[in-house]
């Protein structure tokens, strides 16, 4: 049993870096007497839009609601089909079914993201949109996906919950499709101290519809033009996010350093390492390896005091929640194989290279034992 405890992600340490600024932001909000839809949200929305290089950012309650609001604002619902990755967090699918539409899964390529060459076969006369997830922090092939969508008259929604600041062909996520949904769940690369999310878009009309739907279907107080939702980001979370946003690029640079170290030091072991697509600049929300001996490797690392997670152990189509879709084991073999073999190594803004070296050594020791 090792004494080195290396958590998968140390949220406490990462927020402790900004403790004084976070406390001052809390005080400012408490003393303002204004807690919903005010100056803090407005200021954060402006800063986040600028960061993403888009015209509009709308603060919302969480990442799932961000995606759901986009679909509703696009009038996508009952009878419509939306193409989704077979390999994603279930929220991507839930946004589609909450809107009343049907998710149509498409398998990934070896970047773990939607394989553009498989999308066309999934398009039917009912298809309205594609949700491209930038999984594990690597942007999907948005140039190919947008070209394909244009040919078929489809909307493209980015699920950017894991990819704040990632670049595809030199452009930041959030502005690569028609609209994007972000999550500020505490463990995401830009994390609130609670739930939060944002919708980004360059489309003025869509931005206004999302804003209206997120606030009870109302543009003018007590006038409700649509049956909307209560999906607002609150002032406190916006103020805390505004403290953390200026540090995001430094965090990303740190994650890249750790990822480069893992890539270099783990090469040669019987592990499938992440493949970075040409033109993609990932932000390494997760560093995901694959092994046929995944469970034993995870156990060995745990014994050495190293925390790992599996993203994700069961693909959406094999969850009880989607039994109704009747997609049996074997129907999406690429995603199923990924879910059996993936393991996420420790990664985060406060993980040191020394700790990463301990992780590498533990992997080497595991495979040396055979
Ligand atoms: C976290 C996540 C979401 C949902 O975000 P919440 O803020 O938890 O609702 C959606 N999609 C992906 C890919 C995610 O990782």
UniProtKB/TrEMBL annotation:
The keyword Cell inner membrane does not apply. One of its GO terms (molecular function) is pyridoxal phosphate binding. Keywords: Pyridoxal phosphate. CDD domains: AHBA_syn (cd00616). It comes from the Bacteria. The keyword Electron transport does not apply. The active site is at residue 188. The modification N6-(pyridoxal phosphate)lysine is found at residue 188. GO terms for biological process: polysaccharide biosynthetic process. Belongs to the DegT/DnrJ/EryC1 family. This is dTDP-4-amino-4,6-dideoxygalactose transaminase.
């Amino acid at each position: 049993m090792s004494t080195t405890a290396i958590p998968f992600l140390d949220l406490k340490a990462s927020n402790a870096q900004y403790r004084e600024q976070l406390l001052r932001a809390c005080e400012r909000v408490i003393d303002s007497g204004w807690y919903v839809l005010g100056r803090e949200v407005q200021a954060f929305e402006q800063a986040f839009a600028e960061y993403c290089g888009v015209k509009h950012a709308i603060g919302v309650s969480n990442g799932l609601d961000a995606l759901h609001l986009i679909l509703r604002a696009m009038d996508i619902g009952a009878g419509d089909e939306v193409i989704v990755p077979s390999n994603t967090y279930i929220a991507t699918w839930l946004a589609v079914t909450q809107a009343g539409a049907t998710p149509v899964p498409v398998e990934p390529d070896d970047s773990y993201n939607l394989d553009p060459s498989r999308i066309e076969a999934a398009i039917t006369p009912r298809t309205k949109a594609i949700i491209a997830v930038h999984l594990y922090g690597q942007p999907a092939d948005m140039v190919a996906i947008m070209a394909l969508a244009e040919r078929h008259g489809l909307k493209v929604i980015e699920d950017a919950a894991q990819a704040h600041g990632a670049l595809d062909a030199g452009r930041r996520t959030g502005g690569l499709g028609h609209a994007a949904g972000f999550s500020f769940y505490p463990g995401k690369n830009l994390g609130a101290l609670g739930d939060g999310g944002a919708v980004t878009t360059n489309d003025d009309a869509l931005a206004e519809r999302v804003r209206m739907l997120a606030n009870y279907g109302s543009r003018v107080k007590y006038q409700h033009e649509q049956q909307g939702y209560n999906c607002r980001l609150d002032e406190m979370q916006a103020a805390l996010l505004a403290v953390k946003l200026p540090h995001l690029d430094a965090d990303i640079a740190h994650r890249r350093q750790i990822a480069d170290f893992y890539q270099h030091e783990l090469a040669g072991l019987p592990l499938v390492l992440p493949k970075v697509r040409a033109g993609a600049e990932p932000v390494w929300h997760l560093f995901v390896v694959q092994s046929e001996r995944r469970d034993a490797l995870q156990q060995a690392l745990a014994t050495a005091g190293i925390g790992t997670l599996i993203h994700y152990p069961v693909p959406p189509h094999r969850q009880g929640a989607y039994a109704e879709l009747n997609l049996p084991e074997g129907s999406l073999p690429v995603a199923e194989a990924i879910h059996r073999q993936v393991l996420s190594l420790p990664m985060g803004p406060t993980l040191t290279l020394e700790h990463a070296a301990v992780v590498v050594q533990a992997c080497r020791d595991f495979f040396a034992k055979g």
